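Below is how a single chain appears once it has passed through the pipeline. First comes the sequence as given, then the structure the pipeline wrote out for it. We keep one example in the README because the format questions we get most often are answered faster by looking than by reading.
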Amino acid sequence: MRTRKSLLHGLGWFVLANALLFELITAWFWHGVIEPAADAPAVAYRVLNTLVHWPLLALIMAGLPTALAIVLLPRRQAFKWGPWIVAALSGGIAACLMIVDAVVFSQYRMHLGPYVWGLVAGGAGGETFLVYSRKLPFLFGAGALLIVVAEGGLFALCLRLAEGRLRTLARPVWITWVVLLVGANVWYAWADAHYQVNITQESGHFPFYRPITAKRVFRKFGVTDFEQRLVLPSASNRGLFYPSQPLECSPQRRPNVLLIVVDAWRGDHLQPQFTPNIFTLVPQSLRFEHHISGGNVTRFGLFSIFYGLSGNYWWPVLDHQTPPVLMTELRRQNYDLEILASSPLVHPEFDRTIFSGIPGLRLRTPGATPYERDRRVAADMVEFLSDPARARKPFFGFLWLNSVHSYSIPPDYPLAFQPSWSEVNHVALGPGFDKAPYLNRYRNALHFVDAEVGKVLDALRRSGLADDTLLIVTSDHGEEFNDTGKNYWGHNGNFSPYQVAVPLLVRGPGWQRGGVVSYMTTHNDLAPTILTDALGCTRPPAAYSLGWPLRQTEDRRDFFVVVDYNDTGMYEPDRITLFSPFGGFPVYSHDYDRLDEPPRMDHVRALTQDMLRFSRKPAKPLPR
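Resulting structure:
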């Protein structure tokens, strides 16, 4: 039986071997995904952190559990294989986590951590990570078992190597590593204190990385006199003063309002071949060609539609369970409400935000699959519109269909676009993946949803209420198929037009038919539009929204806040500017090529004020 000392010697090389394995696992997603370092110091820091971070992860994830087993397990024959078992399990689990992290990061630019686990545990994982092959759990289980066996073999190999010539090298290797680890952390702390964004932004590339910061320490000893930079809103801002002034509404007439949201509908897919039924509305509606959602995920897309606010307000709104003034005013004016959602209204927590306090709200629609639920909500809306009672009282209808987001298609539905992927498997996606079958499955799902929307539009026409209904058809966010060429798939990955640009058609009493609007608009404009146009509210929208009525052209901006679970950005006609959590405002093209241009700081400051407007009590009333 080996001594504890010999086992610990072998463990040291086992940790270093796993560090190399972790780096090899992640190396394949660095190429073409991670941007080149900003300058020579950033290159040096990246190399330094590569040398220290992977051994640290391997030490914590595989070395520490095995060391505890070596030290604590009794030295008896019955426990002889205990350290091997712990090494195999801890090393295997760590390697599997690295593989999953690499896949997630390559497509969504997020590492595993409390934020991602919170999304999955809170039920929001489906709106970010989409769907995978049914075979994946079995393949992953078999692969994990092989990795665990391989880790056990690796531990045995390291024990043998530690008894040979490598034994004398262990101490200098680990001493060098400790020195480099201290140096890397001191360098990062210095860079953070001096706002050296070229260095601090590197930390976002490494999984489970928690660098040390020491601004106050450096300032205390007079090493630096850092200047406080522009403070950006964060999830810790929980104050809410919304609306800043009460609404004043005196409607001359009360038209019906019907809002139809097709989940994950790209802005460039309002075409007769993809959406033939919805496209029949184009000659009858005002079409907004450059319309941007408030985010690239459902939570913030729908939030911006109903509240007219940026996504950073979601958290205080959820804390206070404050409904949007739009829903409050609809109820005050005694509108009939018909809220029909294919997705559950509890994940995200729309039952405690957008639809907070609405009695009889159906939280979940029956149906085993998204396409079944889409058929159910469409049929329910048809039934609602066909009721003669609709002519006696104005109504607000909300129809949210989810099959496009889930790529869900009935088995008997004819597939207009071929070849079509039979089963979505995101693990198969990569830079060289042929996207045609995947994109065609998306288009087939969109074609199916369009047929369901067509039934609702027919029912609205048959009811005789179409001319007295403000009809809005749009989406919560877009969907990317590696359009940027940087291995982005789906949504919640970037703020390119493929993920945030969505269609918008508006038809209603007094609205131009067959017109096209070329100036930029945003989901923040929808709530002010309904409140002013349908509900007769005269209070300036700045009292309750960050948007303007859609048809207002004066004082309109062409830069907007966009939000996802990981980032905040500013969308402009020619660029996208990120509000980096590491400091600075990197600028990108719409195809996410890094631009060597400074941010437009006047726009950044204006949007920062917008993101704080309803987080603090207004000092004086807004002008009428």
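The CA atoms of residues 19 and 54 lie 5 Å apart.

See the next section for the split statistics.
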